[in-house]
Design a protein that fits this description.
- The complex is a heterodimer.
- Chain A is an alpha/beta fold.
- Chain A is built from twelve helices and twelve strands.
- In chain A, the strands form two sheets. In chain A, strands 1, 2, 3, 4, 6, 7, 8, 9, 11 and 12 form a ten-stranded mixed sheet that branches.
- In chain A, strand 6, helix 8 (178-188) and strand 7 form a beta-alpha-beta unit.
- Chain A is elongated, with a radius of gyration of 25 Å.
- Chain B has a domain at 58-234: MetI-like fold (Orthogonal Bundle).
- Chain B has helices spanning 2-27, 29-35, 55-86, 89-104, 107-126, 134-158, 162-170, 175-204, 207-212, 233-240, 249-274, and strands at residues 45-46, 51-52.
- In chain B, a hairpin with a 4-residue loop joins strand 1 (45-46) and strand 2.
- Chain B is globular, with a radius of gyration of 22 Å.
- Classes of the chains: A alpha/beta, B mainly alpha.
- Chain A binds chain B through residues 81-82, 84-85, 87-89, 91-92, 111, 167, 169, 172, 174-176, 192, 194, 198-203, 214-215, 217, and chain B through 46-49, 119-120, 123, 129-130, 132, 214-217, 229, 239-240, 242-246.
């Protein structure tokens, strides 16, 4: 603020010295100088920036709403981008908290060594989601082998898995997305396995949800919290042991494609981020986790 | 003095271009160092397996831009001729105004229109598994560059001096001869610039293309199949730039994609200016 006063004084001084000159111009100059000083001052307010996985996003967005009310002076911004973005932006110091919906890879762990603390805030199932038409056409269950065959391009028609006649629109996700890592590991055998049967590639949960809903014959991988009437989850497993991605089945471990949702908190950029994560792990925070459709970790 | 300042500004523009190219080259160096120039013709892009082939996106960009130009140049030019020569003042104003409005609509809006209107239409009319395709990208790009072509060409045709028109009339040339022999040849440099600008916009367009192209890193089968999902240079950069960590080979490969785009754009513009 001291700098600001000095500048103001200087600007007013300029104003009085050149009395003969156009007052308007000096007023503009004053405003400009003030802006130049005030904008950085405004930025120096305590801030938490969060970016990354769109699977974790609903939790953090909901928590942020409540947290802002508790801390009115705090600037808290949340944006998506995917787990890859979460890791990259915390690595580059662009955010205080990165959201990641999968485990870190070995190279990421090495890169982030000592820079961040990883905290699990929720559990989630990756649902195998199909279009409503397909679901109502009879596809209620798929085995892991069938799903793999679909993503490898060996099964191309819904009638091969008990559904209506029609080609399968196989939706893959961008390769750095957390949901894809978890899905590919369980279904295709490795986090980074290719999916030669894929028809299109989408990014966020939002984009994928829309693509499945708008098509009458799509299959995709979707965080459990993003299911709705037009986008239905099928049970996963062999005939008598197939399980739906429900809370119970995630908790007792019987649903195979599940994961922890993590936050990466920067160790170098102050307390604010850690306090926010503490809030998420508190009773109130964990209730919010449940409210948006995920399983609490505590 | 004036001459000095003029040449100074011109020189600094040239320097900025050189600096941009230099930066792109420097940032893509890790890739060039490890893979040479071969990546341009490799068919596989898979960062996790250290494969950075650009062939699919080059093919994708080529088809979407060619299709857009193929559709937008004739229609845009026709609209420009109509506007400059045939319409009464009122209609001319209306047409030009609507084109200028079209040119001002942000590209993401075109993308959303494509997502909601174009994709379902293509799906149902062509009986496709998905409307996301090079065809969708090309159609959308055509719509987006149409105003550029129309507005600039119209200005070029309108700028042909009155004496030329009058002389043509006095010589007894009919309308079509006047158009083909006098107006269009006279306006040609302006039209060329219009097409070049449109080409630049079509090549560089990212968001709208990203929403409708399908983003599948695979060569079309066969190569001229425009009905399949594909990827373009820009849509790949748009999808992956944020997740690549700065300095990694993946990052370098994305910058190299940008460099390729810049080089192709410059080469085309040089080629067009030569003629």
């Amino acid at each position: 603020m001291a700098v600001c006063k000095v500048c103001l004084a200087w600007a007013t001084q300029l104003n009085t010295i050149d009395k003969g000159m156009d007052k308007m111009r000096h007023r503009l100059l004053t405003i400009l100088l003030l802006l130049m000083v005030l904008v950085p001052v405004a930025q120096a307010v305590e801030q938490i920036r969060v970016a990354g996985s769109t699977s974790v996003l609903p939790i953090v967005a909901e928590a942020a709403k409540h947290y802002r009310q508790l801390h009115p002076g705090l600037s808290l911004t949340v944006s998506g981008g995917g787990s890859g973005v979460g890791v990259a932006s915390i690595d580059q110091g662009l955010v205080e908290i990165g959201m990641v919906s999968r485990e870190l890879t070995t190279s990421e762990k090495i890169r982030l060594q000592g820079k961040v603390k990883q905290m699990a805030v929720a559990r989630d199932a990756v649902a195998v989601a199909v279009s409503k038409v397909v679901y109502e056409g009879g596809v209620r269950r798929l085995s892991l082998a069938q799903i793999a065959a679909i993503y490898r391009g060996e099964i191309k028609n819904w009638n091969q898995v008990g559904g209506p006649d029609g080609r399968i629109l196989v939706i893959d996700k961008e390769s750095s997305r957390g949901t894809r890592h978890v899905f590919a590991k369980m279904v295709l055998g490795s986090e980074t396995a290719r999916a030669p049967g894929a028809t299109i590639v989408t990014g966020s949960n939002n984009e994928e949800q829309a693509a499945i809903a708008n098509s009458g014959r799509a299959i995709g991988m979707l965080s459990h919290a993003w299911l709705n009437d037009a986008v239905r989850a099928v049970a996963v497993g062999e005939a008598d042991k197939a399980v739906l991605p429900t809370f119970e089945n995630v908790t007792n471990g019987s649903y195979p494609i599940q994961r922890q949702l993590n936050l990466l908190v920067s160790e170098t950029s102050g307390e604010a981020g850690h306090l926010f994560v503490d809030f998420l792990l508190s009773d109130q925070g964990q209730r919010l986790v449940q409210q948006v459709g995920y399983l609490p970790v505590r | 003095m004036l001459r000095f300042w003029l040449s100074f500004s011109a020189l600094s523009t040239a320097l900025v271009i050189a600096a941009v190219l230099g930066f792109l080259l420097q940032a893509s160096w890790p890739l060039l160092q490890s893979q040479g120039l071969g990546f341009v013709t490799e068919p596989d892009w898979y960062p996790y397996e250290a494969l950075y082939g650009l062939l699919p996106v080059l093919v994708g960009s080529f088809w979407s831009v060619s299709l857009a130009l193929l559709l937008a140049v004739p229609t845009g030019l026709a609209a420009a001729i109509l506007c400059a020569e045939l319409l009464p003042a009122h209609g001319r104003y209306l047409l030009r105004f609507s084109m200028e409005v079209m040119a001002g609509i942000p590209s993401v809006v075109y993308g959303l229109l494509g997502l909601w209107l174009l994709l379902p239409l293509l799906e149902s009319q062509l009986d496709l598994l998905t409307g996301r395709s090079l065809l969708a990208a090309g159609l959308l790009l055509a719509l987006m560059i149409l105003p550029t072509i129309m507005v600039f060409s119209e200005a070029a045709i309108g700028a042909v001096v009155r004496e030329q028109r009058e002389t043509a009339s006095l010589l007894g040339l009919d309308w079509s001869a006047r158009l083909l022999r006098v107006l269009l040849p006279q306006a040609w440099p302006g039209i060329r610039v219009a097409v070049l600008l449109a080409l630049g916009r079509a090549m560089g367009e990212t968001v709208a293309v990203m929403l409708v192209v399908g983003s599948l890193d695979r060569l079309p089968q066969p190569l001229y199949n425009l009905l399949q999902p594909a990827q373009t240079l820009t849509s790949r950069i748009g999808r992956e730039m944020a997740e690549a960590s700065v300095g990694s080979v993946h990052w370098a490969a994305l910058v190299a994609s940008g460099l390729t785009l810049a080089v192709v754009a410059m080469a085309l513009s040089l080629l067009v200016q030569r003629r």
